[in-house]
Write a structure and sequence with these properties.
Elements lengths: L2 E9 L6 H9 L6 E8 L5 H11 L3 E6 L4 H11 L2 E6 L5 E2 L3 H12 L3 E10 L4 E2 L1 H6 L21 E4 H7 L10 H10 L5 E13 L14 H21 L10 H19 L9 H17 L2 H9 L11 H6 L3 E4 L5 H7 L7 E5 L8 E3 L5 H8 L4 E4 L10 H10 L8 H14 L1
Parallel strand pairs: 1-2, 1-4, 2-3, 6-9, 10-11, 10-13, 11-12
Antiparallel strand pairs: 4-8, 5-9, 6-7, 6-8
Length: 430
């Protein structure tokens, strides 16, 4: 059967959200949809869910492979896709109901090879649209060397012309992190016609620290290493594309500087901000990569990059040193497990914790409950002190907002308790 669109879903232990994702695809306004779902050696009930749906829906093509990773699963899906267009969707994400139809219609109308839709994050940390993607998805024609594309590596908000994509030979590299960015940018460097679809929305789920199923909420030397390999692929592919016929890049030096900027900012946001979950080897790897990238940057690029972590100020990769010079001291006498989990996934990690016990962390100081208030005064190392009940989980941006408010000439004059309330109100309203 000829389908308008093939949706490729790599599935590994996705039982929690898989039915929601499949229902989202089946309930799209576009009905000519092939669902290629690749079970990547799942050990939970994923295979049973796939089998149940495949019995009921003839447009579902189930494929089973030994556990080989998400890249291998997606590549397998590409080879089996028969739709005029194709896109990728993970087992925990969804689209708004008319997104498939809108993207296919735009590809039909423009003759483009790639259509890009909006991105909305939901789940842990609240709902938020990606402002950079919002900007260029309003445009009918997006240049292949548009620097904004470097800031949107997510795989699922792109819809490809299948014949064109297969002809390029581009596949996902065997990486566990940022494989989507390497795939997308290599495709872009084959000079496709790209269009935006503002009314279509891909909804990207962020998981809680307790769920811990997102790669971006874990950190290891393997993931940092794969991230570096991915950005190296993008860099080398961009340089190679400059030599191809049809290259329309008018600022090659500036474009490569933007790749360095993207690599640096992503390294800080996705890894350094999770430093309390990193071992010493990973910290050293992050430090070395940051030093390497800054050595390649112009003074202007470096200045721009530093603005992305102005809440952290100086990057310190030694956790013992962070503990000696924190920006914020958090005081929570008897915190819950949920509170502690949310504290150690804060996007501003340069803090000290004072508590009564039950926590073994480099930056946690245990104080006796009988003399707690006096000991807090002695042990506090930061200029900003935030005293919390420790009962409810924190918004992941809480300490970041406090840091920015304290640095503000307008708000920094207020007492820490007022700053704390202001941060809570700001995040609630946002």
């Amino acid at each position: 059967m000829n389908y308008k669109l093939s949706v490729i879903i790599p599935a590994y232990n996705g039982e929690k959200f898989l039915t929601e994702t499949l229902d989202c695809v089946l309930n799209q306004t576009l009905k000519s949809v092939q669902i290629v779902i690749v079970n990547d050696g799942s050990t939970d009930s994923t295979a049973d869910i796939i089998a149940e749906y495949a019995k009921k829906h003839s447009n579902i093509l189930p494929i089973t492979q030994p556990n080989s990773g998400v890249s291998a699963a997606r590549n397998n899906g590409i080879r089996n896709a028969s739709g005029e267009y194709l896109l990728f969707l993970d087992t925990d994400d969804v689209f708004t109901p008319d997104s498939f139809e809108l993207m296919c219609d735009k590809l039909d109308k423009t003759g483009a090879d790639i259509a890009i839709c909006r991105v909305q994050r939901f789940g842990y940390g609240g709902e938020e649209f990606n402002p950079i993607v919002d900007e260029f998805t309003k445009e009918d024609s997006i240049g292949c060397y548009d620097k904004r594309l470097l800031w949107n590596f997510l795989v699922s908000n792109k819809c490809y012309r299948t014949q064109w994509l297969k002809a390029t030979g581009v596949e996902f590299p065997a990486l566990r992190y940022s494989e989507d960015g390497a795939f997308f940018m290599q495709a872009v460097y084959h000079f496709p016609k790209i269009t935006g679809v503002y009314d279509a929305v891909f909804r990207y789920r962020r998981h809680t620290p307790e769920e811990g199923s997102s790669v971006t909420q874990r950190i290891s030397s393997v993931l940092v290493g794969d991230f570096c390999k991915s950005l190296d692929i993008v860099y080398e592919s961009a340089k190679a594309s400059f030599e191809k016929d049809g290259c329309g890049c008018t600022d090659k030096v500036g474009y490569l500087q933007e790749i360095f900027s993207k690599a640096y900012v992503a390294l800080i946001n996705e890894f350094y901000r999770m430093i309390w979950a990193a071992d010493d080897e990973t910290c050293e790897m992050m430090k070395a990569r940051c030093e390497y990238l800054t050595s390649l940057m112009s003074a202007e690029t470096l200045k721009k990059c530093i603005l992305y972590h102005k809440d952290i100020k100086t990057l310190v990769f030694d956790k013992k040193e962070i503990n000696q010079t924190p920006q914020i001291t958090v005081v929570a006498k008897h915190p819950t497990k949920e509170f502690v989990a949310s504290l150690y996934t804060q996007s501003m990690p340069v803090f000290q914790l004072l508590t009564c016990g039950g926590i073994v962390r480099e930056n946690a100081t245990i104080i006796s409950a009988s003399n707690f208030e006096n000991q807090v005064k002695k042990e506090t190392r930061a200029k900003t002190v935030v005293t919390l009940s420790g009962k409810e989980p924190l918004d992941p941006r809480f300490l970041k907002v406090i840091s920015l408010l304290k640095a503000s000439p307008k708000f920094g004059i207020f007492p820490d308790s007022v700053i704390c309330l202001g941060a809570k109100l700001f995040l609630k309203l946002k």
